[in-house]
Amino acid sequence: MQRTALFLLLTASWITSAASAAEKYAGPRPPKPDMLYLMHADNLVATEAAEAKQETGKKDETVYSLPGANSSARTPLVEPIFLIEADKILPERLELYRWEVKNGHRELLVKSGKKGGARPLHLSVTKLDGKLYRVEASEPLTEGQYSVSPNDSNRVFCFEVF
Q: Which end of the chain, N or C, is surrounded by fewer C-beta atoms within 10 Å?
């Protein structure tokens, strides 16, 4: 009985490791680390990397702004998929936000502890291979300006859904 159990355990372990080896990622790879790329089939499109300007607004409000009304990175996908080769960025700390266009620039209003400010949209993060991660919107996005950003940084990776 113990031999049968040991045999089944070893067989299951071998099948699991064989399956993981067979699932090794073989798609396109980002050319630069710590840069978010939109996946369009087998093509990668670099997002617009920028540093958001932070200003303190009224009580408990922070306003982030970016120059220009539109991002140079565009996608028709309402649930975009990204790839990132993570070196210094922790993919689990990425957040997705929708930006408002005001007076020719993009703006994000964050209110601490109150309703009405921007809230992060849902993302899912999957480790593919080594430091390669797949990041995807977990809910449909409407047309507009968006960014993905580490939650402890003003660094943003912008894109437009059209």
A: N
Nearest 10 degrees: Cα torsion 147, 46, 123, 112: -20
CA separation for the pair 51, 55 (Å, rounded)? 13
Residue 155 lies in a domain: yes
Is residue 97 within 8 A of residue 135, CB to CB? The reply is no
Looking at the structure of the chain, the number of domains it has is 1
pLDDT tens string 65-108: 999 999 999 999 999 999 999 999 999 999 999 999 999 999 99
Are 63 and 57 in contact, with CB atoms under 8 Å apart?
yes
- Give a yes or no: residue 1 inside a domain: no
Going by the DSSP 8-state scheme, the letter that residue 121 receives in this structure is: B
Domain range for 85: 30-161
d(CA 60, CA 95): 20
Is 75 within a domain? yes
Long-range contacts of 120-123 (CB under 8 A, 24+ apart): 120/95, 120/96, 120/151, 121/96, 121/97, 122/96, 123/94, 123/95, 123/96, 123/148
pTM over 0.85: no
Is 137 inside a domain boundary?
yes
